[in-house]
Design goal:
single chain; about 425 residues; TIM Barrel; 2 domains
């Protein structure tokens, strides 16, 4: 399809103004400026990239929200002109940093994705103009309900062929879905700030965040958490095992690109605080488990001596932290019923009644069971996880032992 109106690089010249080494855009009586916000790698404890942000002023020198510009009901031609003009001035101005390594994150509007090919080529010529390596560009695709996935994939492939990295922006807000992750195979996923806000208020979300990060890692994407504004949120980002962080706590956007003075976070103090917190949590679990290790070992000894499961675990099940005990064959299949703590029996949630009967259940998929089977007479302890038989966070103690003529594994779930 031939372009209906050519908005290539030379065509944008009349909408730019150059002052020294700084370039601004002029559009609809507005002056467009570049601001850069640093992006940090938590492992490296330093800046690894900058997101280019639009700052706009009207003729009275009042700052205008960039969102207002892109949410206007302009024609596709005007929206794409704005989008391309922003990327033009951002790349030009980024060179003022004299940074030869860091990434430059650039947003691409949904309108450009949908209609950009109607207005001529642009980005490849922009990179050639400044001799800027494509591998230092991260193209941010906003999570937006673009119905034509084939078109979206075509645009993403275009940038990938140039050598750019691809980031999904604002994941977790509005129209996010994992299908787009599987389809586009982004290099980086930027988690929306709403994750942090919810994780700060709800412990369950805080726990879940690390699982989301892990799932995104398994998809082949690095993870960036946006909108980190407090030390507590920074700690949540570290706990989640995210790769990158961005937000006011680590560095505010700055416009003086010839003499940048980005905020330098105190990573040493932050990681000391995290290590202290993590150490306290490990110590708490160790103290908790020390008591139950003894009770558990006593139950195993009684089973070895020929006692029944009921008799062997009687003392263990009288502790309020103990949820249940059960015995499993070395092929992973449960032997007999699960013995539930009397404290728990009184508080059983009837909604989970279909999961109560676990006789002959097969637990071989569980890592704790396979480890116990592979390492006889060695106590195995899991990390906290969600138990399927009651939807509660627990840890499981397990040990393979020989009792009588057969070998089996004793398992015990504890509240954490």
């Amino acid at each position: 399809m031939k372009p209906s109106v050519n908005l290539n690089l030379p065509a944008l010249g009349p909408w730019t103004r150059e002052k020294g080494s700084y370039l601004t855009g002029v559009l609809n009586h507005l002056r467009l400026h570049t601001a850069l916000q640093p992006i940090f790698s938590l492992a490296h404890k330093r800046v690894v990239g900058y997101e280019a942000l639009l700052r706009a002023r009207d003729r009275d020198l009042n700052w205008i929200s960039p969102a207002r510009l892109f949410l206007r009901n302009d024609s596709p031609r005007e929206t794409i002109r704005l989008d391309r003009l922003c990327r033009y001035i951002h790349l030009h101005n980024f060179l003022n940093l004299k940074d030869e390594v860091s990434w430059l994150f650039l947003n691409v509007s949904p309108e450009t994705i949908i209609n950009g090919n109607r207005f001529g080529s642009f980005f490849k010529h922009l990179l050639e103009k400044y001799n800027f390596p494509a591998h230092r560009i991260v193209i941010e695709v906003v999570e937006y309900p673009i119905g034509d996935n084939a078109l979206l994939l075509e645009v993403v492939d275009y940038y990938k062929r140039l050598g750019c990295l691809i980031a999904i922006d604002d994941f977790g807000a509005g129209h996010s879905n994992f299908d787009r992750i599987w389809t586009l195979r982004p290099d980086i996923v930027k988690l929306d700030r709403s994750f942090l806000v919810k994780a700060s208020a709800q412990g369950s979300v805080r726990t879940m965040l690390s699982g989301i990060v892990s799932l995104l890692h398994q998809s082949g994407a690095l993870v960036l958490i946006e909108g980190v504004e407090t030390e507590d949120q920074a700690m949540i980002a570290i706990e989640s095992e995210a790769d990158f962080v961005q937000g006011f706590f680590f560095g505010r956007p700055f416009m003086d690109l010839t003499c940048p003075t980005p905020q330098e976070p105190d990573f040493a103090r932050l990681f000391d605080a995290y290590k202290g917190f993590a150490g306290q949590e490990e110590e708490r679990l160790d103290k908790l488990l020390a008591k139950y290790n003894t009770l558990f070992a006593h139950a195993v000894q009684r089973l070895k001596s020929g006692s029944s499961l009921v008799a062997a675990t009687k003392s263990l099940l009288t502790d309020p932290k103990v949820i249940r005990c059960y015995q499993v064959r070395t092929d992973g299949v449960q032997m007999g019923p699960t013995l539930v703590s009397p404290f728990l029996s009184a508080r059983e949630d009837p909604r989970y009644k279909p999961l109560e009967d676990t006789k002959s259940a097969d637990w071989f998929r569980r890592h704790y069971l396979r480890r116990a089977i592979l390492h006889p007479e060695q106590l195995q302890v899991t990390r906290p996880y969600l138990s399927i038989t009651g939807a509660r966070m627990c840890v499981t103690l397990s040990m393979r032992f020989a009792g009588g003529q057969k070998e089996s594994v004793l398992c015990c779930d504890l509240f954490v």
